[in-house]
Amino acid sequence: MTRRILFFIAFVCATFGAAAQQLRTPAAGDVPERRSGEILVQLTPDANLNTVLQDLNRQTSARAAISLKRTPAPKWHIYLLQFDETALEPEILLALARKHPGIQLVQFNHKAEERNTEPNDTEWWRQDNMALINAPKAWDASTGGVTPAGDTIVVAVLERGALFTHPDLAPNRWWNWNETPNDDIDNDGNGYIDDFGGWNPRNQADDTGNNGVHGTQVNGIIGAVGDNLQGVAGVNWKVKLMSLADVQWEDEIVEAYAYITDMRRLYNQTNGAKGAFVVSTNASLGLDGERAEDHQLWCAMYDSLGKVGVLSVGATANSNVNVEIVGDMPTTCTSQYLVTVNNVDKTGDKVLSTGYGATSIDLGAPGQECYTTTNLSPGGANLPGYSNFSGTSAAAPHVTGALGLLYSLSCVSFTSDALTAPATCALRVKELMLDNTNPNPTLDGITTTGGNLDLERAVDAVRELCQGVVGPLEILKVQDLPANQWRIEFQTPTFLPYRFRVFNMLGQQLYEKEITPQQFATNYIEYDASELPRGIYVMSIGRGKFIASRKFPKL
């Protein structure tokens, strides 16, 4: 797996991520929409905002009336400035700001577009996307929920909005139980008032935005409730979905990522008493044809998230382009904590209309007509329902949900340092998933892994990491211990109950005990043979007609 190294300046302690688009091929000169009369700046830690504003106004003869509009991330000294664009060319102000000693990074405030295509075929088997990533086999090991240490796993989703009253989403919505809703008090001291149901940067509240189709679909792929006798199942049946709503302009993206970072940092610092155990973020958003060097604040945010233990997933362009040549955001960002995804079809082959890049795109995931939750009446009655969903917007949440699922596996050593060494733990989870993709000739040489998401392979890798044994039914080792004690190590193909029995050579059963194999651990049973007469005996482990046996002596 190709590993990409972050190269940003040492002062950058935080910054930002994700933006978006519909299926289209960028034309020459096509640039993302920016909000007129606005720029985003990050000041150096010792800079004074008022001094910076005075300097910029003095250099422009005050004709542009440069002023503070709002502060998306105060802890990181990030401000949204406004100015009169009719009085000053925006490129001139950008150039002046880049030269100011108190300004560390500066960029325009761009608008993000959703990265999805409309469904066009409702007759496909409804969740063959889950079969393609071998999710059912992974669900035998875990369906999500909590870590072995008991931390409730949270995934943060940046969207314009989602219908969280949908019956397949409502039980999995994340709530900030340390906050009292609607009392105008920051009860948990995290710097946000009344963030009981997540955060909406645009409204400075916890509402769910436009309750739209796109966000409802993305959340469903990640974490629709499974095994509830209705609708569909997400990749992660029990994960908590944190809502970051009305996220479209880059200042809103900045604040959304700042909120996620603050909540995970608070969780780490309080050992889970406050904050949220966010392990991954999803941004089914992006900007076609854009270069990372023009969005330094955006790219640097991924490292800030990674340092507190949060991996980020980004969808690439919905066009057949080499993003390393034409550009793409966020998938050309170089943070090692960013996982980038393109789109494969129902047979696992790369979709023609999806981006690629040998060092920029990590893996493929299903993104063709994925059946998931939706809002059948957006902007109207808000009617919960289901529909097909296509594009890299659909591919990315498969990976986001998979990362959350890996944290839930019953392997204590795999994530035991999630709070004490969060960045190390996050990279371990990411690399294990990327090192165990399904080899795919259509992705070979144009992605870092040359494969697509495979949950079964990832789960098996965790088992191996934890020295667990799983495979054909077999007695692996019989050890003669002192005082006629025996230790029998074994493996089984499932984690269902099995029977351990002891027989004499006449076939008479002398002992029986039910044993349940443990996941991700060496399975063994200890047997006391001290009461047996001298002779040769047979021990067996079996379930139904499948039996493994071994002779042993009693001396």
What does this entry show, briefly?
The chain has helices spanning 49-59, 90-99, 128-132, 135-139, 213-223, 250-269, 296-307, 323-326, 392-407, 412-415, 422-434, 455-465; strands spanning 34-43, 67-73, 78-82, 103-110, 113-114, 154-158, 240-244, 278-283, 285-288, 311-315, 328-329, 338-344, 363-366, 370-375, 384-389, 438-439, 451-452, 474-481, 485-491, 498-504, 509-515, 523-528, 535-543, 546-554.
Strand order of the largest sheet: 7-6-8-10-12-13
Helical residue percent band? 10-25%
What's the tally of helices? 12
Structural category: alpha+beta
Strand content: 25-35%
What is the correct CATH architecture of the largest domain?
Answer: 3-Layer(aba) Sandwich
Regions with pLDDT < 50 over 5+ consecutive residues?
A: 1-29, 117-125
Mean of all residue-level pLDDT scores: 88
CATH class of the largest domain: Alpha Beta
Compute the separation of the termini in Å. Answer: 54 Å
Query: How many structural domains in the coordinates?
Result: 3
Q: What does the model show?
A:
- The protein is an alpha+beta fold and 555 residues long.
- The protein has three domains: 34-110, Alpha-Beta Plaits (2-Layer Sandwich), CATH 3.30.70.60; 117-465, Rossmann fold (3-Layer(aba) Sandwich); 474-554, Immunoglobulin-like, CATH 2.60.40.3080.
- The protein has twelve helices and 24 strands.
- The chain is elongated, with a radius of gyration of 27 Å.
- It starts with 33 loop residues before the first strand and ends with a strand.
- The model is unreliable at 1-29 and 117-125 (pLDDT under 50).
